[in-house]
Design brief:
Layout lengths: L3 E2 L4 E3 L7 E2 L3 H27 L9 H31 L7 H8 L14 H24 L6 H4 L1 H14 L1 H8 L7 H21 L18 H26 L6 H12 L8 H22 L6 H31 L7 H22 L6 H5 L1
Antiparallel strand pairs: 1-2, 2-3
Helix pairs in contact: 1-2, 1-7, 1-8, 2-3, 4-6, 6-8, 7-8, 8-9, 8-10, 9-12, 9-13, 10-11, 11-12, 12-13
Length: 376
């Protein structure tokens, strides 16, 4: 039986199915605010690992910001769960018991799980994974020292932290996904857009060693420059278009969504290589704006698969065309070098990125099966 929302924020259900706490838009926005603290701490710590060679201890100001952000997110979610437990008890005709009593009474049958806001179940798991990985990370650093550069992005304990953060920060995205409606405004969809951007930026953080925005390979004089640069562009295209197509499949996105997503990510990635500011930020902002214009013009949706495929092809093609134009302009000023790739390399790179996006559109929206196969 389909459930419905009651007056105190729980989904009513049958006698066999316990009530489920529903996340409110207000709570999603609160989670976005504390998530900024946590993700900001991660990027500050990434800057320290990349730019302070004498970093030799786990106990740093950067880790203090990072781990206090974790505690802020965990505390916010815990308070909401306890609040939902109390509302559930009152709604069931009980009294407002003490928190200890509420928790104790919710343990039999794991009834406390029903107090977790809908969409945040994996966030709770992520917080647990992060806490365990944090203890492991401290032990790792005390025994093996502090990683530098790419090592810090591949440390097993750091990857555990990444998994925990990703599960936790994507809570507002999952909560919005469960709500009815496909054409919301910025106010309604804002937490999901922030959460989408945070999760996307988390993945680009841990693949920073393959980011074309901070490693301008087309202007680097090295024999491996074209092959490595194109490989990185293909990887980041796959990551970015996966997020774009996921959001596109679920909602009619408000204008500015992709400018925000790409622009914030481009600004954050500068922490790894500050000299790339005039490459990363203008490319990300202009590429995101172009994607928003293409989205408005093409109106891609599940009902229009050909427009989805064209959109998925054009967004990376335009993005990396702008990237090469940006490098051609600022390269001689900042890096004392213009585009060094031959014409087939620089002309073909945006096209092959577009092809990667085009192919991903078939994963998001597969072709319809023949009628005889569907009915067999």
């Amino acid at each position: 039986m389909a459930s419905k929302i009651d007056s105190v924020g729980f989904a009513s259900s049958t006698a066999k199915e316990p009530a489920r706490a529903v996340s409110s838009l207000r709570f999603d926005w609160i989670m976005v605010v504390v998530s900024i603290w946590w993700l900001g701490g991660l990027f500050i710590d990434g800057w320290a690992h990349s730019n302070i060679p004498q970093l030799e201890t786990f106990f740093t100001p950067w880790h203090a910001v990072f781990y206090s952000g974790y505690l802020a997110v965990a505390f916010t979610l815990l308070v909401q769960i306890l609040f939902n437990l109390r509302k559930s008890a009152i709604n069931a005709g009980g009294s407002a018991s003490s928190l200890i009593t509420l928790v104790r009474e919710s343990l039999p049958g794991n009834r406390w799980l029903q107090a977790i806001p809908d969409g945040y179940e994996l966030s709770v798991l992520g917080l647990v994974i992060f806490g365990i990985s944090g203890i492991g990370d401290m032990t790792w650093h005390l025994i093996l020292g502090i990683e530098r550069g790419t090592e810090a992005l591949l440390s097993p304990t750091h990857l555990g932290l990444a998994m925990g953060i990703g599960l936790a920060l994507s809570g507002p995205l999952r909560a919005a996904w469960h709500r009815p409606g496909t054409n919301p405004s910025w106010r309604q969809l804002g937490p999901a857009i922030f959460s989408l951007t945070f999760t996307f930026s988390l993945l680009t953080f841990f693949t920073a060693y393959a980011s074309p925005l901070i490693a301008p390979w087309p202007i680097i004089n090295a024999s491996s420059s074209p092959s490595r640069g194109i490989t990185e562009i293909l990887l980041i295209t796959a990551v970015s278009m996966s997020f774009v197509l996921l959001a596109l499949r679920r909602w009619r996105l408000p204008f500015g969504t992709l400018t925000f997503m790409f622009g914030v990510n481009g600004a954050l990635m500068v922490v790894f290589f500050p000299h790339a500011l005039l490459v990363s930020v203008p490319t990300a902002l202009l590429g995101g704006l172009a994607a928003d214009v293409l989205y408005r013009f093409l109106q891609p949706s599940v009902d229009q698969p050909m427009s989805v495929r064209l959109f998925a092809f054009l967004v990376p093609l335009v993005f990396y065309s702008l990237y090469l134009v940006d490098l051609a302009i600022v390269g001689p000023i900042i890096f004392q070098s213009g585009i060094l790739w031959s014409a087939p390399f620089w002309a073909g790179t945006p096209v092959i990125a577009g092809i990667a996006g085009f192919l991903l559109s078939f994963v998001m929206l597969p072709p319809a099966q023949p009628a005889e196969e569907r009915n067999s």
